[in-house]
Structure formats: structure tokens, C-alpha cells
Design goal:
Helix content is 32%, strand content 17%. Strands 1-10-9-6-2-3-5 form a seven-stranded parallel sheet, with helices on both faces. Strands 4-8-7 form a three-stranded antiparallel sheet, covered by helices on one side. With 247 residues, the protein is of the alpha/beta class. It binds fructose -6-phosphate.
């Protein structure tokens, strides 16, 4: 496990983007596992800038982690819309090579199975993760057990409250989502988890320095052999110095 701590999320985003760029340059058919949310924005800003400076992404495939149930691609808070706005609309990844779970499928169970087929067919080279204040990754929420495969999840009150900042009110936040399970995440060849701000400090300390527990889903990343935590000073503020210095 590597830990990198930056003064600003902007610097952190640049570092993450250079790692992703190396994967894009050094892999014949790179598959990026992508996250949405405010944490991913500095990374996407830099990837868009890299693309404007010549980074070709025509051979890239992307597989997003999750999508709200009930929100279609044209809904401004859907994750497909987010990806179009912040990345896909500005780079040259062909649309048919971008995958986001279908939150408006009439048969959600079969949409989940289809999504697992995509991940099996296109193994993820590098998985980008944010982390919830409760330690969730994707929408794998704290629970007695973590599910392996893509599934429909009922979001915790904490997640609904936290994501209400993107909606007019808490009532408008969908209460369910489709998410990749932990198996697909752990099978990625490498993983980057980014976290910024003091609100994430507890979840980061528990994920990196605590026990591996299903009620802190990100702690399962301790079991992966190639994980980089890319943090700012606030999200790293509850790590003990000896460990955070080790990197
Ligand atoms: C979103 C996702 C979530 C977010 C997490 C952090 O695709 O997978 O796990 O990464 O909720 O969200 P932000 O970055 O908005 O704090």
C-alpha cells in the first residue's frame, strides 16, 4: 500500500492523472474503473487537460462503479450525466466503450448480471475510488457482509444526507443505486483511492490503520497488493505519522 499526501486536491488530482496516463500509454486496451463525485473532479480536469495536450484515449474503455436507480442519462444528477459533463464529453473515448450501470432498467437484476459480464470480459486495469464518510467504496455500504457481484443497494441515511448537497432536497436523493461489488473492485490490477477534506479523515484512518471490517468497506483494500491512497492533508489528518510517512 502506498500513501501520498498533498497540500491541495489539485496537486493530488494531477498525481492521480499521471498514474492513469501511464496505464493508458502502457496498455494495449486499457480499462479504467471510474468513480463519480466531487473527489474525482481534479483527476478528470487533469485528464481532459492531458487529452488537449495530446493524450489519445480512443483505445480506452471505461467501467463506472455505480448509478442511482431511477435516474436516466439526461438527469443532471445521474452518474452517466456526470461522466459526460466532466470527462466523456471532452475526451475521445468512443461512447460505446464507456459503461455505466443502467439505473432505469426495467429488470434491475438482469442489468446487474449484464454488468458483471462486462467486467468479466474487460478486466479493470486501474480502479479509481472515492470514499464515503462512512467508509463506503462504490455504493458498497457498511454492513454485516459485503456483496461480491454487481447489485442493487439501499443507500444508508448517512450517504443520502451526504449526497443531498447535489440535489434540491434530501427527499430528491434516490434511495437505491446499482453498484459494482467488492469482487470486481479487488480484481482490478491496481487501485487508486482518493479522499479530500476533514470529513473523510475518520474513514481514511479506519480504512488504512484499522482492522479489515465489513462495516468499514474500504478497509478491504488492505488485502489488495497494489493500492495507492492519494490524500490531502485534511483527509490524512487522523493517520498516525509513522504509518503515513511510510508511503
Ligand atoms: C461514486 C462513488 C462513491 C463516491 C463517494 C465519495 O461513484 O463510488 O463511493 O466516491 O461517495 O463521494 P464524493 O467524492 O462526492 O465525496
Amino acid at each position: 500500500m502506498r500513501i501520498r499526501i498533498f497540500d491541495t486536491s489539485h496537486e493530488a488530482g494531477l498525481y492521480a492523472a499521471s498514474i492513469v496516463e501511464q496505464t493508458i500509454l502502457n496498455t494495449a486496451h486499457p480499462v479504467l474503473g471510474l468513480a463519480t463525485g466531487s473527489t474525482a473532479l481534479p483527476l478528470y480536469e487533469e485528464l481532459v487537460r492531458f487529452h488537449r495536450c495530446g493524450l489519445d484515449m480512443a483505445h480506452v474503455r471505461s467501467i463506472n462503479l455505480d448509478e442511482y436507480v431511477g435516474l436516466g442519462a439526461d438527469h443532471p444528477q445521474s452518474y452517466r450525466y456526470f461522466m459526460n459533463q466532466h470527462l466523456f464529453g471532452h475526451v475521445n473515448i468512443p461512447e460505446e466503450q464507456t459503461h455505466v450501470p443502467n439505473g432505469t432498467a426495467t429488470d434491475l437484476a438482469s442489468a446487474c448480471l449484464d454488468y458483471d459480464d462486462i467486467v468479466r470480459k474487460y478486466p479493470i486495469d486501474i480502479q479509481i475510488l472515492g470514499i464515503g464518510v462512512n467508509g463506503h467504496i462504490g455504493f458498497n455500504e457498511p454492513d454485516d457482509l459485503l456483496l461480491s457481484n454487481t447489485h442493487v443497494v439501499t443507500l444508508t441515511h448517512e450517504t443520502v444526507r451526504s449526497n443531498a448537497r447535489f440535489f434540491e432536497s434530501e427527499d430528491d436523493v434516490p434511495k437505491q443505486a446499482i453498484t459494482l461489488g467488492v469482487q470486481a473492485i479487488l480484481q482490478a490490477k491496481s487501485i487508486i483511492l482518493m479522499a479530500f477534506g476533514e470529513a473523510k479523515a475518520d474513514a481514511i484512518a479506519r480504512s488504512i490503520q484499522g482492522e479489515v471490517r465489513t462495516d468499514v468497506p474500504a478497509s478491504i483494500l488492505q488485502l489488495h497488493r497494489d493500492v495507492t491512497f492519494i490524500l490531502d492533508t485534511q483527509s490524512a489528518s487522523k493517520l498516525s505519522a509513522s504509518r503515513s510517512m511510510r508511503g
